[in-house]
Amino acid sequence: MPWRLAIMCSLVVAGCGGNGGRGTGGPDAASPTDDAGGGGDGSPGGDGDGASASARGFPAGSPWVSFYGTAQQMGDLARVASTFRVINIDADPDVGNFTPAQIAQLRAGGRNRVISYFNLGSCENYRSYWSSAPAGLRSCSANTAAQRGAYDGYPDEVWMNVGDAAYQRLLLDHVAPRLVAQGIDGFFFDNLELIEHGTSTSNGPCDAACAQGGLDLIRKLREKYPDLLFVMQNATGDFTRQGRTGGVAYPALLDGISHEEVYAPSPDTDAEAELAAWGALGLRPGGRAFWIATEDYVGSCSAATAARAVYDKSRARSFHPYATDASGGQLGVCFWPF
């Protein structure tokens, strides 16, 4: 379906029915003991392994996991595939965490959705495209005009102006296609909170053109990949929820959102309210519930008491919870028994 028609359909569906203002249209759809693998028609095995497996919207939103290590560090891929319906990994082929065959195993014939970390707001110096890029494109290190300074707390990252044309081309024409070629179902956009920074900060200043450029970049990615899943992490304030790009309501471009540190290590009532406001939009990408997730950090996969509190609070708002060790960690899978 042409992208503009697809977005129009999403907008039309969003205006009908909705989910009553709840985060995901009902209680947590699938605990680890639930059989959440059925397709929309009730058949086992989800949507199969054909084109429909990458259609808009998440058939099942829980349980989900965020993991940025290697397949070896993940361990038993079959156990992960049988436990989680949404699996967020770093599929960068140059980093080499997962092969296409291993990603296919995690997808379990289309029963699960595997999405990949895709850093938009900053550029890490260990990525191949930091120092080199194909002919006609400019690497992150060479594009000094787009650099917005060091990322506080992350010495291997530099903030990048998401409105910069050359940086957008690098992401659109080089980074995104390589991730898609790995066999993923969609993207997990990171560091877009840059567009909420404004200019009165030294930690990633972003003016109005930069901020609008972030929305425009997501629209251009949607034009290129009309059927992939798009999840935005953080950046869930008024600017994105009420934003427009190319005449389109920005929220219609997404299939879901996630926010870090909503409940742990300390509660963030503003973030919780932002997620609830997104839920109130009643979005239905692909006719499915808009995915609203929380990702909280409890120190380790043995902190079951803290994790249980996170899950209870998140589920009470109809969000999809996951708790792991730390933002800069996520090198182990937490198999919580609740």
N- to C-terminal distance: 39 Å
CATH superfamily annotation: Aldolase class I
Number of strands: 13
N-to-C order of helices and strands: HEHHEHEEHEEHEHEHEEEHEHE
Unreliable parts: 1-53
Quick check: average pLDDT? 88
**Percentage of residues in helical conformation:** 25-40%
What spatial form do the alpha-carbon principal axes imply?
A: globular
Count of helix runs: 10
- Using only C-alpha atoms, the radius of gyration works out to 19 Å
Largest sheet: spatial strand order: 1-2-3-7-8-11-12-13
Q: Classify the beta-strand content into a percent band.
A: 15-25%
Largest sheet: 8 strands, parallel
Write up what this structure looks like.
The protein is α/β, with parallel strands linked by helices and 338 residues long. It has one domain: Alpha-Beta Barrel (TIM Barrel), CATH 3.20.20.70. Helix content is 28%, strand content 18%. It contains ten helices and 13 strands. β2, α4 and β3 form a beta-alpha-beta unit. α3 packs parallel to α4. The N and C termini lie far apart (39 Å).
Topology (SSEs and partners):
Blueprint: H1 3-14, E1 64-66, H2 71-74, H3 77-83, E2 86-89, H4 100-107, E3 113-119, E4 122-124, H5 128-131, E5 147-151, E6 154-160, H6 165-180, E7 186-190, H7 208-224, E8 229-233, H8 238-241, E9 244-245, E10 248-249, E11 256-260, H9 269-279, E12 291-297, H10 304-316, E13 320-324
Parallel strand pairs: 1-2, 2-3, 3-7, 7-8, 8-11, 11-12, 12-13
Antiparallel strand pairs: 4-6, 5-6, 9-10
Summed up:
This protein is α/β, with parallel strands linked by helices and 338 residues long. It is built from ten helices and 13 strands.
